[in-house]
Write a structure and sequence with these properties.
The protein is α/β, with parallel strands linked by helices and about 280 residues long. It folds into two domains: about 80 residues, ACT domain (Alpha-Beta Plaits); about 200 residues, Rossmann fold (3-Layer(aba) Sandwich). It contains eight helices and 13 strands. A hairpin with a 4-residue loop joins β2 and β3. It starts with a strand and ends with a strand.
Length: about 280
């Protein structure tokens, strides 16, 4: 049985779902899951569908029928991928290890269907973790004077492994433009605040100084705007005047791990559609 996931975006028009489902049925396909959303304010249509075919031949017939029919008729933007596929990922880290350990643990327990191809870090501190789990580790220091050279080394590694997803697991450097443009909507960052509050560095210190009553974590796609990319997942915990900066950091670490893992899972399960600077998250 061949199983696929299809993501669709286009302007909303009458008949989209009818024509799409007919293209599946008429080519011996079966829909096992469908979820759709209409943004009435902007007249946009979004849909995620899981389908299955008895063989590749039927899928190829459907694909041809779909592209020459509904895609042209409704000017559909779409993405088709295999449902069961272990995504290849690369992880960027600095000195904090909690997110890295969590991702590895969830991968080993099959909670995350990914293969960790490599780890890149601007520090040597976490190499022992990579060695422990036999993951290739690349130490690429970054400073104001060597940013272009560091970018080139990173791009060489990325070209070598061609990852499906890059995870910034508390990587405390800003990626250069070429890396971001080469992996549009394929780089997920975890930021330790409830964005758009406290972007940039030292958000726990800023939260403490402001006297906030909640702290949060945000996972988002990386764009050229610092901590300004499309938001995938967020969560919060309550705090009070009794908490100092150290306790905020410790509370935040657990939140960061959970929020990042949720975002990774949503991405690899093809449950995210990005439009402009927002995301549509399917169930």
């Amino acid at each position: 049985m061949e199983k696929y996931i299809i993501l669709i975006f286009c302007k909303d028009k009458q008949g989209i779902i009818a024509d799409f489902t007919q293209s599946i049925y008429s080519n011996n396909g079966n829909i096992t899951y469908i979820d759709q959303y209409v943004d009435k304010e902007n007249n946009n249509f979004f849909m995620r569908t899981e389908i299955e075919f008895n063989n590749k031949s039927d899928f190829k017939k459907f694909n041809l029928f779909f592209v020459n029919g509904p895609v042209k008729k409704y000017n559909i933007n779409y993405d088709i991928s295999l449902k069961y596929y272990n995504s290849k990922v690369g992880i960027y880290v600095s000195k904090y290890n909690h997110c890295l350990y969590d991702i590895i643990s969830r991968t080993k327990s099959d909670e995350l269907q990914i293969e960790i191809s490599f780890i890149i870090s601007n520090h040597i501190d976490l190499k022992n973790i990579a060695d422990k789990f036999s993951i290739p580790f690349y130490h690429i220091p970054v400073s104001k004077s060597n940013k272009l050279d560091a970018e080139k080394k990173q791009l060489d590694i990325l070209n070598k492994y061609n990852p499906d997803l890059i995870i910034l697991a508390r990587y405390m450097q800003i990626l250069e433009d070429k890396v971001i443009s080469n992996f549009k909507n394929k780089i997920i960052n975890i930021h330790h605040s409830f964005l758009p509050a406290f972007p940039g560095g030292r958000p726990y210190h800023k939260a403490f100084e402001r006297g906030v009553k909640i702290i949060g974590a945000t996972s988002h796609y990386v764009t050229n705007e610092l901590d300004g990319g499309p938001i995938i997942e967020q969560d919060i915990i309550r705090i009070s005047h009794i908490h100092n900066i150290e306790s905020l950091i410790n509370k935040g670490k657990d939140l960061e791990k959970v929020v990042l893992s949720r975002a990774i899972k949503l991405h690899i399960e093809k449950k995210i559609l990005v439009h402009l600077n927002k995301t549509v998250i399917f169930n």
